UniProtKB/TrEMBL annotation:
InterPro entries listed in its UniProt record: Acyl_CoA_acyltransferase (IPR016181), GNAT_dom (IPR000182), UCP028520 (IPR016890)
Name of this protein: GNAT family N-acetyltransferase
Species the sequence originates in: Pseudoxanthomonas broegbernensis
Pfam families: Acetyltransf_1
Coiled-coil annotated residue ranges, if any: none
Keyword Isomerase found: no
Lineage: superkingdom: Bacteria
Amino acid sequence: MSFVIRDVREHELDSVLALNNNAGSAILPLDPAKLHDFYDNAEYFRVAERDGNLAGFLVGFGSASGHDSCNFAWFKQRYPHFFYIDRIVVASRRRGGGVGRAFYADVQSYAELRYPLLCSEVFLDHGADSALLFHGSFGFHEAGQNVMPEVDVRASMMMKELCSYPWIRQTYGDALPDLPWVGRPRRPQPRDSRATGT
């Protein structure tokens, strides 16, 4: 059966939270407030849906965001312009079915039009071979390591150069063509504005 990747909807955040907090030690837990912060501020927040159920999600931020992750800060200290994958979670029953690969293809399609680098991290203290191999198969390499002080976890800081970006930037600058497949960055709005329609 096939699945679709699309923007998350606010009423799905409880299901996203459950997916995240049941993912195990390779993903840091979230609370509802932090997840709503992601919903309000993430440039990319998409879910995979299969048979009417969520099969996973991916959250990402551009380098100009005010994202407060220490791993995001590690990249920001070293690179001026990048897109950061904060987390990807695939439901355990859907792992190995191509959902993660579809997410990475989708987020790269989004990022390469706007950023020269795609960045992520892999926690090294929890059996990282499958995640390292997954990232390596997408052309990522380790740019360094970071110990996350708040949780004492060592992370491999993974980076990939997006080879399409220089040509796109030279050809289109900040004015990408208005094509349906190009999409536009999420324009997060405060929840109050969405609720009142203003």
